[in-house]
Amino acid sequence: MLEKLFLQVLNMSYIGGIVILFVLAARFLLKKAPKIFSYSLWAVALFRLLFPLSFESMLSLIPVNPEPISNDILYAHAPQVNTEISGVDYLANSSLPTGTIHGSINPMQIWANVGAILWVVGISVLLIYSLASLFSLKRKLKNAVYDKDNIYLLSGIDTPFVLGIIRPRIYLPISLSKSEKDYILLHEQTHIRRFDHVFRIIGYLTLCIHWFNPLVWIAFFISGKDMEMSCDETVIRKLGDGVKKEYSSSLLSLATARRTLRATPLAFGEGDTKGRIRNVMNYKKPVFWVIIIAVIGIATLSFGLLSNPKNEILTVEDYANQYIQQVIEGYEEAEYQDFKVDEYRIESLNKLAVFDDLTNHPIELWSIKYRLKPDSIQNVMLAGGMNEIDGWITEDSSMGKPVMVFSYKKEEPEYLGIIWTGEMGNMLSGQEIALREFLESSGYLPQEFFAGEHVIAKFKLSTGETAQALLSQPASKGSQGIWCVERWMDGNGTVYYNDPQVDSVLADYYAELQKQCDNGHHPWLLDPSDVALDFIHGTLGQPGDGETVEMIDNASADDFLQTPTSTYIGLISNFAESYPNLFHFDPVEWITLEDTERIEELGIQSYDMPNGYYIHNPREDNLAFMVNEDTEYNFIDWGNDFVARGEDRFYSTTDKAEFIRYLNTYSDMAAKVPFWIETKDGYVVSITEQFVN
Q1: pLDDT of 544 over the 90 cut
Q2: pLDDT over 70 percentage in the chain
Q3: What is the structure's pLDDT at 607?
Q4: DSSP assignment of 504-522
Q5: For 396-414, what is each residue's pLDDT tens digit?
Q6: Is pLDDT above 80 for 87?
Q7: Which of 201, 242, 520, 675 is deepest in the core (most CB within 10 A)?
Q8: Where are the alpha helices (DSSP H) in 177-287?
Q9: Which residues touch 80 (CB under 8 Å, ≥6 apart)?
């Protein structure tokens, strides 16, 4: 929640900074105009910095995207900032951290969280400083002498100021002469009448919120100068040009004797005396037509800066045409194709399904069928699932037919990408799972269907590799909640999703199962072990029982995403020259004294297997494994008399060539001994020789 608020503030600070630049430019053009005009423009910047709401207009002067940072950036695999300024976007996006496909926490979430914490710390520091300054100032005001109305006289200060919000007080130096007092008092009363003391506080709070933006600091100080100068002009306009000299002398006198007053947002005094005196001496009451032109210009500029540019709203049909254009470009630019597309047509564009609860916005799936007319069908190489009907190329691919994914924000479609019918099947549950997989890989969803506590089931496949399944509670939580297998992972780290193949969304399907279980049906669904075994046997068709399946409770999605380590034992064939990092592996059955039933079945005596026994049944379909530069090789150092001393002596290396030389010493097939190998993420982690006595 804090991260999203911080991102919203970044957007407001960005657009507010753009408005500040416009105001600074306008202020330069209004250099000779009354300062009330430039002062009033700062209200536009203040509004854009404080309020995220706006309206769209064709007359908007904002030249950039007013919301360059989307909340989706927290979950996107490749986060993007879209300011519509190419140089800025390139620098920003090239420095953003990229998410990992199997990471449940996107790096952007971490960065946003750190940024949000620093942001809050900065706000706190400024607020604490201002309050400390205020308390220090209020101690000095205990000796103030009441004059009249809301006016107080105070010795020890050399600058007048206003303090307070609801009942603001004017504090004047007790040393002021009668004429100076009249001028300065009128100036301070003008502040109060215009509610400058309130706007100054709001401005300071805005500065606290956007403390990280240097443009906001510039705006805070320059708007203060414009405020003071516009008050000076009000005094001259009321008292006449004849007081310019005396009023300027009063400002100069106060500046000469001034000692620093600790700044606080609740009390503001005078500043930039030189600039104010110059402005007073040059001030001339503007003629009526100049005021009219200035008012119209300020109103027009304010409207243009308060409104956002009106964006073109694209329809689903527009996105469909854009997608087909991309397909055409891909065909025409492919090196293996030599044709041009003369025309195309959309055969059908139909809404396939709507999912309301997967993200913060509704998601729709649209199936699209189209035809492409090539200039010469004879030049088209039909590959990758491509098909042809009556001289037109169809939308078919090796993954099936395309389905467009749209997210609806503010009832406007936003194109997210393509999934394929070959990934989803015909049932609604399959469509949802394919969509979830797409949203997860794109960073829009975490790597889990159902949040909460998980259980991981580790089991052996018939190939010998270790796989694992992620079990979740899709409906109710706790002891009375049913369990389901939402996905599983093989030994190479590939994740597969478990589709119950029902014509309903997953939430409704599991809610109905939960209801049935609550009524006494399917009680085995309450036990994750039973659910895991049912999945292993019924869905995967793999062996396993309660003793061979390892259940890990209180697991997380991150735990599941750690690829399991698979362990095999067997005979290694030499590495092939054509594939130097690949070797063939012939598994064996390894028996120890703990395998009592198997020992009895084979009639083996304990003295036949002092440290183990293996049975080799040669296979025609040997397994193949890949090593890399990190693979560790452990083999017996026969140069040491470890047998006599009863010690295990292994020589370890990461030098594959050294291991191959050792492997070649076993020239006789009958003399070969088995090796244990451990694999993870598709590579062999270690190879360890098994000593057979």
Answers
A1: no
A2: 88
A3: 64
A4: S-HHHHHHHHHHHHHTTS-
A5: 999 999 999 999 887 789 8
A6: no
A7: 675
A8: 178-193, 196-209, 214-239, 244-257, 273-282
A9: 73, 89, 93, 96
Give the separation between CA 634 and CA 334, rounded to whole angstroms. Answer: 48
Q: In this structure, how many other beta carbons lie within 10 angstroms of the beta carbon of residue 347?
A: 12
pLDDT in tens, 275-318: 777 777 777 777 788 788 888 889 999 999 999 887 778 899 99
Spell out the residues 6+ positions from residue 247 whose beta carbon is closer than 8 angstroms to its own: 183, 232, 235, 236, 239, 280
Contact 505, 355 (CB under 8 A): yes
Whole-number pLDDT of residue 75: 65
CA distance 585 to 674: 10
Give the residue from 284, 244, 251, 253 showing the smallest Cα distance to 270: 251
Q: Are 489 and 496 in contact (CB under 8 A)?
A: yes
Rounded CA gap, 10 and 386, in Å?
46
pLDDT given at position 670: 47
| DSSP 3-state of 684 | strand
**Residue 172 backbone phi and psi in degrees, to 5:** -115, 145
Q: Which of 302, 282, 325, 335 is nearest to 45 (CA)?
A: 302
At CB < 8 A and 24+ separation, what contacts does 344-347 make? 344/370, 344/371, 344/372, 344/373, 345/370, 345/371, 346/317, 346/320, 346/321, 346/370, 347/371
- How far is the C-alpha of 577 from the C-alpha of 479, rounded, in Å? 57
Whether 445 contacts 439, CB under 8 Å: yes
* Domain definitions of the chain by residue range: 2-307, 316-441, 454-560, 566-689
pLDDT digits (tens, 9 = 90+) for 605-621: 766 666 667 777 776 67
Specify the amino acid at residue 461: L
* Confidence (pTM): 0.64
Q: Is 677 helix (H, G, I), strand (E, B) or coil?
A: strand
- Cα–Cα distances in angstroms (integers) from residue 479 to residues 119, 506, 519, 528, in the given order: 42, 21, 15, 11
The reported pLDDT for the residue numbered 268 is 55
pLDDT reading at 35 higher than 70: yes
What does the alpha-carbon distance between residue 532 and residue 632 come to, in Å, rounded to a whole number?
Answer: 34
Q: Which residue has the tokens 């030049």?
A: 379
Residue 272 pLDDT level (bands cut at 50, 70, 90): low
Q: Which two tokens stand for residue 620?
A: 């025609």
* Cα distances (angstroms) measured from residue 497 to each of 210, 355, 445: 45, 18, 15
Of 371, 370, 388, 368, give the one whose Cα is nearest residue 379: 388
Dihedral angle, C-alpha 21, 23, 27, 33, nearest 10 °: 170
Report d(CA 446, CA 436) in Å as an integer. 9
Q: What are 572's strand-pairing partners? A: 585
Whether 525 contacts 517, CB under 8 Å = yes
Model pLDDT, residue 372: 95
Burial of 384 (0-12, 13-18, 19+ CB in 10 A): exposed
User: How many CA atoms lie within 13 Å of 67's alpha carbon, on the beta-carbon side?
Assistant: 18
**Out of 104-108, 461-465, 468-472, least confident range:** 104-108
How confident is the model at residue 662, as a pLDDT? 87
Q: Which tokens is 560 given?
A: 């599941």
Of 225 and 279, the one with more pLDDT = 225
- Tokens 């709070």 locate to 205
When mean pLDDT is compared across 26-35, 128-137, 166-175, 634-643, the lowest value belongs to 634-643
DSSP code of 22? H
At 140, list the tokens. 């000095």
- The two three-digit tokens of residue 554, written as one number: 């209180």
Band (pLDDT 50/70/90 cuts) for residue 76 is low
The first and second tokens of residue 374, run together, are 């090539």
Q: Could you give the count of Cα atoms lying within 13 Å of 683 in the half-sphere of its Cβ?
A: 8
Residue 511 to residue 515: CA distance in whole angstroms: 6
C-alpha distance from residue 222 to each of 112, 187, 203, 256 (Å): 31, 18, 12, 22
Q: Could you tell me the two tokens for 539? A: 């869905």
